[in-house]
């Protein structure tokens, strides 16, 4: 059996001074710190930060600007082009473009309350199962393209997290505060042939953003 590794990477920190849930909205690019995080992950994977050089032969990203900007230095480090895959998109969300909260956020307005009726689906956006299906299909395509080597797929927190939950046989509904998927983190899937044999997690850019998981956005 040939061993293949697929890294699901969350994009770096986004410039979002208004603190909105930007979702799939265009124009949200990396902050200066987010760009530094992407560069650090690229250097780490390329073996420039003391770790062994990884055998990356494929770099794929969501079409959203923040994911493309995160993938760019990684692709450059390995002399590759970034492949765009819409299956890696952020989840659809009714609260996209709004601030989320009770004070000055959207939850103070009763017209939004019906969207919270079913947290298990969830009722405010794309079903968890739909996210898992499309991200898993993107993972399998990248595994086939990188057979015997490694692939990096840059996506977004929620699609990555629910995909990991599904692969680990856990329930998909969850407390968002307990997601293990920090900015610029790597959720690493190891395959023997087509069989998933291991799941790992690392934060190569943690030193740049100690509170990464608390930053607004996805």
From TrEMBL:
Gene3D superfamilies noted in UniProt: Phosphoglycerate mutase-like
Sample GO molecular function, one term: phosphatase activity
Record InterPro entries: His_Pase_superF_clade-1, His_PPase_superfam, PGM_Phosphatase
Any one Gene Ontology cellular component term annotated for this protein: cytoplasm
PANTHER family according to UniProt: BROAD-SPECIFICITY PHOSPHATASE YOR283W-RELATED (PTHR48100), PHOSPHOGLYCERATE MUTASE (PTHR48100:SF51)
Name used for this protein in its record: Histidine phosphatase family protein
Species assigned in the record: Cellulomonas shaoxiangyii
């Amino acid at each position: 059996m040939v061993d293949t590794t697929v890294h699901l990477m969350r994009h770096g920190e986004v410039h979002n001074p208004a603190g909105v849930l930007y979702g799939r909205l265009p124009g949200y690019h990396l902050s200066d710190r987010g760009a530094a995080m992407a560069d650090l992950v690229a250097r780490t994977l390329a073996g420039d930060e003391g770790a062994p050089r990884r055998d990356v032969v494929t770099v794929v990203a969501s079409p959203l600007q923040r994911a493309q900007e995160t993938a760019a230095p990684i692709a450059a480090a390995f002399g590759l082009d970034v492949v765009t895959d819409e299956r890696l998109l952020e989840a659809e969300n009714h609260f996209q473009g709004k601030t989320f909260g009770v004070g000055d956020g959207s939850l103070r307005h009763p017209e939004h309350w019906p969207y919270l009726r079913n947290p298990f689906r969830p009722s405010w956006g794309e079903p968890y199962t739909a996210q898992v299906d499309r991200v898993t299909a993107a993972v399998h395509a990248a595994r086939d393209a990188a057979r015997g080597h490694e692939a990096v797929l840059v996506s977004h927190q929620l699609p990555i997290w629910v995909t990991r939950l599904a692969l680990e046989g856990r329930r998909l509904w969850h407390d968002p505060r307990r997601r293990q998927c920090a900015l610029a983190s790597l959720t690493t899937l190891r395959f023997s042939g087509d069989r998933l044999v291991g799941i790992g997690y690392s934060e190569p850019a943690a030193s740049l953003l100690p509170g990464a998981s608390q930053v607004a956005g996805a």
